[in-house]
């Protein structure tokens, strides 16, 4: 693509993230675009996520002879070509008919893990099949019902998912004006519900089948998945139910990272859910160094919220993240081109990450992490 561009050929989809978003806006129904692009409240946290990146910078080194480079890493038993994952994004069939299947296929083709959301529009088993020989990570929104939790986890395990991501920050949905003004249409369309709706334990809690009484099924899902605050003891129960690596998503303070470690997690994700939950929370990148210092290498620290480019990913890695996740960028790619659109976005991120770190003078992640002077103050 890089060479094609220098040859005067324009790529099928924009490489610039702002243009990609603008193009997605033109093709998506308003409720679907708002669901992806929107955030909590005034959008202050979404803006803070971006602003936090503007306050740090790389200090490139020259003449390092780093023609050969390797960004591959093994994280929680998963090999990846670069420390990049596609974050869990629910209800993907709102964006493209193939939804999570397209995302899984594109990610698998590039060897990049795509984390499957509990709110997937395709079943766990279908997505597992679509991911072929690619890595499988499963994200849990913990239902209030223990039987449904056990059933979802058993299905994920049986379908070959190896890493469990437990999202802590969304025990109830954030105040999202753009979704509220559209009566949360994305959630009510029924299309984003295949994982719970296909689950035998979920269906057992319904008087009639979801097909017969969709309204009751949607209310049942809302009762099970939102509105009940839970404590660390509940995490212990999930920990006891999952033998493989377990990562918690939504950590923003060093104390919570410590608590998570005490409760036996194998990794933490510093994230504010892309600014979709607590409006006026600090930019997620500002929370990263404190958590990295407090975890002190005992488990991997992953990061998301606000990454739009490969250079953004480079900065988060330089600040100590072991890997990064993206949400909206690949969602817009999916909207514009299905599997090919996701593929395009991920390739751009990987290529820009390599170009950035190459020009900044690095050859692998160990070198990047060993360097203390890579991040300076505000440009
Ligand atoms: C999300 N996110 C999310 N997280 C999660 O744990 N389960 C989920 O089902 C969803 N669903 C979801 C839908 C949409 C449309 C978006 C944009 C995000 C949060 C996601 O995993 C990630 O934390 C953020 O998207 C990261 O921020 P950026 O990259 O979008 O800025």
TrEMBL record:
It comes from the Bacteria. Coiled coil: none annotated. Its cofactor is FMN. It holds the Pfam family FMN_dh. InterPro entries: Aldolase_TIM (IPR013785), Alpha-hydoxy_acid_DH_FMN (IPR012133), FMN-dep_DH (IPR000262), FMN_HAD (IPR037396), FMN_hydac_DH_AS (IPR008259). Residues 9-378 form the FMN hydroxy acid dehydrogenase domain. Keywords: Oxidoreductase. Belongs to the FMN-dependent alpha-hydroxy acid dehydrogenase family. This is Alpha-hydroxy-acid oxidizing protein. It comes from Actinomycetospora endophytica.
